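Objective 1b. Sequence-to-structure analysis of Glutaminase.
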Amino acid sequence: MIADILETARRRLGGAPKEALGELRAPRPILGIARAPRIVPVGEAWHLGVLLLADEQLAATGRIVRAREEARRGYTAESQRERAALAAAAFRGGFGEGSTVHVDWHLIDVDALDAASSPVALVDGQPMVRWSATGGLMPLERYLDERIGLLQHPPERA
């Protein structure tokens, strides 16, 4: 049932643009000198809200960054500094300037879903999506339909 819903979504997405999936890797030191971490490409997926739908897999989104060359900036917040470091790691990993990269995502085993799974759960035999940490559940098919519609026909000035 879930596999059919996902396959229908993939067919509908056909020519829609995908976004890059990356994985943070710390290279081995050379002559004892540590090298900066980088985010390397590991695939592509359609970004559908809290879900990433790839050709063969389903994943939950993690952090999203735009790759950019490293530059000295005076951030007051540590979170800004961390985001800038991730963006620079994506650039070092080979992503082009301004490319959207998903990191810290995790695969969803659609064969092992139960009521406690997140963001996709199986409730009373129906696949449901928890679209936010505090949000309620929504049927997976309806959620994907809505998200695909937004991806294919974005609102003006979006």
